[in-house]
């Protein structure tokens, strides 16, 4: 669907408490357009819990249940069970959590909900840090990235959450990015029409956390895709299909840009360039991406 054809109705209002250039609000605006007002959100501790605005005001035109950091999927399971008991199976239950509440603190509840076959959509907006609590490292933080808890650069590579989710063999999972709104909208709409657990992860480049200018949010998303640092795909009943530019990259019709083209714009990687270029760490980052794409070509091409 073209952007001009998206629904006019808004469920995310102006005056919310998001940072300028916030990717989470870009994503949530599109997601709620795709799902409509007959949606109940479950939100753990994360940036969105602040973006909502302070009680008794709200920036969201859908019901929201705020819940503990680790309990988004468990809370959504309870909401879904209650609706089902009332015969209200046309209401979409949306768990909306950051990477900290998904990769780390909430992974147990998420895995349990997926295993039980809970009929809900779980969306992780991945800004690769605990942005709301001060930019600490998470399981999604890239290797060598600066955070307040990895001041010399993170020493581990991030975990592959998409692989972990696909190991549960759920009906639908996908990766999207805020810089590709049509792709994101389509995937959310598709997930809405599928019964059972659905998981969508959205790359959400964070200006204050990643340390780039707020007007570059969309560009940072596109560069992540073009360098192969982020992949657009969907998995339906264990069949993986790459989408958009990621599909063209997989087929070798165009070449991936060097990873440096993405990270050089982000202040969290500044130490790799100043006072002098750290060729060794830059090479490790590139090799990690290259190996992942070699695996993709063996498994999915």
Question: What does this protein look like?
Answer:
- This protein is α/β, with parallel strands linked by helices.
- The chain has one domain (9-300): Thiamin diphosphate (ThDP)-binding fold, Pyr/PP domains (Rossmann fold), CATH 3.40.50.
- The protein has 12 helices and 8 strands.
- The protein has helices at 23-35, 47-51, 72-85, 100-104, 107-116, 161-166, 181-192, 207-210, 217-226, 244-250, 260-263, 279-300; strands spanning 39-43, 64-66, 92-98, 121-126, 172-177, 198-203, 233-236, 239-242.
- It has an 8-stranded mixed beta sheet with strand order 2-1-3-4-6-5-7-8, sandwiched between helices.
Short summary of the structure?
The protein is 37% helix and 14% strand. With 301 residues, the chain is α/β, with parallel strands linked by helices. The chain has one domain (9-300): 3-Layer(aba) Sandwich (Rossmann fold).
Topology:
Elements: H1 23-35, E1 39-43, H2 47-51, E2 64-66, H3 72-85, E3 92-98, H4 100-104, H5 107-116, E4 121-126, H6 161-166, E5 172-177, H7 181-192, E6 198-203, H8 207-210, H9 217-226, E7 233-236, E8 239-242, H10 244-250, H11 260-263, H12 279-300
Parallel strand pairs: 1-2, 1-3, 3-4, 4-6, 5-6
Antiparallel strand pairs: 5-7, 7-8
Helix pairs in contact: 1-7, 3-5
Which key terms come to mind for this protein?
8 strands, 301 residues, alpha/beta, 8-stranded mixed beta sheet, globular, 12 helices, Rossmann fold, single chain
Order of helices and strands: HEHEHEHHEHEHEHHEEHHH
Low-confidence stretches: none
Number of strands: 8
Could you name the CATH topology?
Rossmann fold
Shape designation? globular
Estimate the mean pLDDT confidence: 97
Main sheet makeup: 8 strands, mixed
- Which class in CATH terms? Alpha Beta
Distance between the termini: 26 Å
How many domain regions? 1
Task: Let me know the CATH homologous superfamily.
Answer: Thiamin diphosphate (ThDP)-binding fold, Pyr/PP domains
Discrete helix count: 12
Strand sequence of the main sheet, in spatial order?
2-1-3-4-6-5-7-8
Class computed from helices, strands and strand pairing? alpha/beta
Radius of gyration computed on alpha carbons = 19 Å
Q: Architecture, according to CATH?
A: 3-Layer(aba) Sandwich
- Percent of residues in helices comes to 25-40%
């Amino acid at each position: 669907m073209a952007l001009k054809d998206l629904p006019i109705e808004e469920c995310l209002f102006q005056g919310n408490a998001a940072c300028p250039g916030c990717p989470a609000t870009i994503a949530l605006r599109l997601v709620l357009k795709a799902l409509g007002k007959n949606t109940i959100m479950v939100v753990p501790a994360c940036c969105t819990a602040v973006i909502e605005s302070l009680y008794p005001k709200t920036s969201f035109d859908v019901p929201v249940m705020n819940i503990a950091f680790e309990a988004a999927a468990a809370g959504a399971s309870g909401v879904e069970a209650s609706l089902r008991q009332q015969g209200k199976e046309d209401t979409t239950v949306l768990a909306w959590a950051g990477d900290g509440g998904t990769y780390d603190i909430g992974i147990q509840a998420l895995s349990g909900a997926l295993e039980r076959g809970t009929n809900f959509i779980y969306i992780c907006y991945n800004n690769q840090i605990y942005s709301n609590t001060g930019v600490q490292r998470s399981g999604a933080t890239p290797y060598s990235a600066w955070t307040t808890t990895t001041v010399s650069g993170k020493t581990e590579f991030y975990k592959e959450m998409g692989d972990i989710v696909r190991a549960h063999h759920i009906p639908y999972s996908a990766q999207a990015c805020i810089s590709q709104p049509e792709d994101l909208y389509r995937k959310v709409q598709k997930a809405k029409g599928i019964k059972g657990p659905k998981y969508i992860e959205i790359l959400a480049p964070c200006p204050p956390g990643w340390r780039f200018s707020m007007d570059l949010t969309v560009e940072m998303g596109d560069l992540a895709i073009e360098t192969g640092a982020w992949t657009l795909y969907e998995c339906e009943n264990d069949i993986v299909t790459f989408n958009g530019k990621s599909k063209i990259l997989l087929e070798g019709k165009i070449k991936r840009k060097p990873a440096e083209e993405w990270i050089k714009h982000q202040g969290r990687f500044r130490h790799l360039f100043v006072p002098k270029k750290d060729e060794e760490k830059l090479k490790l980052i590139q090799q990690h991406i290259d190996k992942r794409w070699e695996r993709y070509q063996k498994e999915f091409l």
